[in-house]
Amino acid sequence: MTQYQKALAGEITPEMEIVANNEHLPAELIREEVAAGRLVIPANRIHLKKGLVPVGIGISVSTKINANLGNSPVAGDVEKELEKVHCAVQYGADTIMDLSTGDEIDRLRQNMIDNVAVPVGTVPIYQICEELDDILDMTPQNILDAVEHQAQQGVDYMTIHCALLQRHLPLVKSRITGIVSRGGSLTAKWMAVHKEENPFYTHFGELCEIMADYDVTWSLGDGLRPGCLHDASDAAQFGELSVMGELTIKGRKAGTQVMIEGPGHVPMDQIEMNIKRQIDVCHGAPFYVLGPLVCDIAPGYDHITSAIGGAMAAMYGAAMLCYVTPKEHLGLPNSEDVRNGVVTFKLAAHAADVARHRIGARDRDDELSRARYSFDWQKQFELSLDPQRAYSYYKEARGEKACPNPDDPNRERFCSMCGPKFCAMKITDDLKRILEEIQ
Amino acid sequence: MTQYQKALAGEITPEMEIVANNEHLPAELIREEVAAGRLVIPANRIHLKKGLVPVGIGISVSTKINANLGNSPVAGDVEKELEKVHCAVQYGADTIMDLSTGDEIDRLRQNMIDNVAVPVGTVPIYQICEELDDILDMTPQNILDAVEHQAQQGVDYMTIHCALLQRHLPLVKSRITGIVSRGGSLTAKWMAVHKEENPFYTHFGELCEIMADYDVTWSLGDGLRPGCLHDASDAAQFGELSVMGELTIKGRKAGTQVMIEGPGHVPMDQIEMNIKRQIDVCHGAPFYVLGPLVCDIAPGYDHITSAIGGAMAAMYGAAMLCYVTPKEHLGLPNSEDVRNGVVTFKLAAHAADVARHRIGARDRDDELSRARYSFDWQKQFELSLDPQRAYSYYKEARGEKACPNPDDPNRERFCSMCGPKFCAMKITDDLKRILEEIQ
């Protein structure tokens, strides 16, 4: 039985207990949320045996972030990718997706699953495409085999583009950037040439059986997500979304856990509408968004354009944000890009948790602010999302004089932004004493 | 007469014409907005003579961004600061504030004003404090002299903390980070020790006369802006805001142009309320926000925490965003930090312009997206906010094989993220042809 089926049966699983504990929420609430389909716990039985620490993804728990990794035929060897995986986890990625399309896909994936305690996701069509000479040769059996193979490896959730149908294809014609989902475009090409319905859709029931066997969570892929502002919220995107809504119900009937992937590139004024519409159409299934990027003119800075959209999406109810690195649209990220992407999305997710008034979400902010006000530089760095970077910037600005140790009588009660005479916090500290004497 | 007085008299000034032209709006609309106090054109007569290109700041025109520069007693010589000024303007800063508190303030400022065509702002109390042994020695005459001196130099707008009153001081006690505005804390200390009302408030009328003489625009400083999430939207902040509302009316009566400074650190769920309240309380005066930062736990990444808040603030009606660099809270920025801060805020401001449906705001996004879809790398870079960085990332990922020239038959129709076999845009391009053949 899957987490969903057990939740429906009233059972609180050990995985639900762990999630409840980590989220500081009652286990019964977690069970109720899983049973309602509003929370998923992607935890393949096989990965669980190998040390997976279950993570809850849903509107009632803290916002999660995913880091996409994996090599491509043009870049990235296995060892380098594994280095990046560890970097992503170190900086706080809640899940990892292996999007490898290059060599040694199996070895890389098995390594990831065996060595990371966070849930691992994949997009099975990548391996199918890699192993065939031409995606047009893909058969339904290839699909079932690939999904079963990856489930056996211990993959916790899979992005499969089941909801892109024949009737949606003509809707893409008026777009500027067509289909920007790799899985979506491969599937669409297969459908267009063979003039057949999407095989992932027609074989959804059989796929559900495999998913249920291992308790692999669905991440219903949005093959028609917009790839630029112009294409956002169009008939293609929402046409696919309504099929996702149907499949959510079918997936639940088959006992599987279902989450939904979302855009993409969306102007800020359409984000709230997009999230509310997804939650409504997909019966409360957790929403896993890619960005969204709020403008198209900042290649090299798309971790930021997408963190703006991601923070807003999470505030309005998205459950997981897929990170974007500064290299988006330009190339595969290196470790430093992964670090920048992960920390950027951690801060966006955290800001949303604060905005949604999640329990204890602001405690760390308050603690860091107290450390800041008392010039306890060391504690301020420790409480930071990226202590090393905060310290290195401080040190760079202060040079050899930097002295963050709170026990040192020579530590600075100012930073180089203002210097001692102009430090507002130092002045207010004086002021507080003055006010106390007066009143 | 000031721009405001001329607008009230029905006159369309050459400066309004320039603003109208740059914003693709009718000059009469600009005049109306200036007359209503919803738009300011900070243009000191003296800077105008030296080549200032007037900029409009208000809800009806595109969102502007400001870059704070200037040395501190601990860091930054004049030549290095001027380098940063040019870097900020190159990457698109719409205005520059000279916040120098170190040596040679006058020479640095005069150099800025003489050499940049964008409006220059200052915080006069910094120079007052620098020139006195102790801020407690400050007299009203010091204040009037400093403001007149800087107005004569050609400063276009000045941040002065006039609205922080005696009755607000006790409200600061319950805060975690007290007063984080340097000008606010200096003023508060003076007020607390002398037990006198804020001299910038008591001499507001005389200050208005100087401002009107040169047409220096008020930037009513928020001395009590919150310095952490905990302190946001508290009685101190809103107490000062209501005095800003009174002073807006007084300033307009004296013929001056008025804009209002805003927070600071604000949780995302309070941003819309903050902006609407400011617009309401301050009678539509343009709102110039510092961030706001949406969480406190990301030192080293505060250009991003603040760009999230800034983009949202601008979407809800803020007129100008003050950039924040990655060094915020840690030290003075170097040129690379300035570049990161400026580009980050340009993209945030731009995203807000798109979200507000400002005329033509999305054109550049659409054009870049078309270039992206047709693998015209060179055009994609040219349309980017930071072409150099986009190109360098692309080149880094592609190595020596990089070939962005659209006329070169060998140029890549993919990037290293996906490689040729998995490039969604390339596949959709194939797909489009297939669909056209079919239908």
Q: Biggest chain pair contact, residues each?
A: A-B, 115 and 115 residues
Q: What is the CATH architecture assignment of the largest domain in chain A?
A: Alpha-Beta Barrel
Quaternary structure classification: homodimer
Approximate strand percentage of chain A: 5-15%
Q: Could you state the CATH homologous superfamily of the largest domain in chain A?
A: Radical SAM ThiC family, central domain
Number of helices of chain A: 20
Strand ordering within the main sheet of chain A: 3-4-5-6-7-8-9-10
Helix content of chain A: 40-55%
Radius of gyration of chain A: 23 Å
Order of helices and strands of chain A: HHHEHEEHEHEHHEHHHEHEHEHEHHHHHH
Q: What would CATH call the class of the largest domain in chain A? A: Alpha Beta
Helix-strand category of chain A: alpha/beta
Please provide the count of β strands of chain A. Answer: 10
Note the gap between the termini of chain A.
Answer: 67 Å
Biggest pleated sheet of chain A: 8 strands, parallel, barrel
**Tally of distinct domains of chain A:** 2
Overall pLDDT level of chain A: 94
